[in-house]
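pasting BAAT/Acyl-CoA thioester hydrolase C-terminal domain-containing protein for the record, 179 residues
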Amino acid sequence: MVHISLLEGHVSPSEQQIKELAAVTAERWYIAPGVKRIEIRQNGVVGTLFVPPGPGPFPAVLDLWGMGGGLIEYRSSLLASRGYISFSLAYFGHKDLPSPPNCINVGDSYFKTAFQLLQDHPQVVSDRIGIIGLSFGCYIALRIATRTGVKPSCLVCINGPMGITKPLINADGRTDQFE
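structre below
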């Protein structure tokens, strides 16, 4: 819920009483009616798939977040609400992934399997699959496109890791534990 109000005059932090001229409360929906949310626990891959309403076929997006870990779904649900099948992928810090939770304990084959899961989906246009990454997810997106044999149709990298990346302990892309 977002409350938007129009206030009279100039507003400064030192003022106590401010006359509200108009106000409205808007509710932001993260998932459109008819979008299907499907939990994925398949071939060791953990994530949530969002499918737009209708028969498709649809373009698709593999959605990777950053070093916060876990499984963040709202961007994928928004993408599905706009006509893309979107797969929000967990790759560390999730209860259904190999422990410990503070290291990336899945390798390149994990990401390749996730991408192939999208390619094999009957409602996906298999040659129109992109990858979107935020922060450390940018590093993973670029790694998928250059190291795994996967050929995404586009990459979107938002705020890539600035100045630091977690050193990899092997060629498969795994890391040591981090804080």
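The chain is about 20% helix and 30% strand.
The first strand starts at residue 2 and ends at 7.
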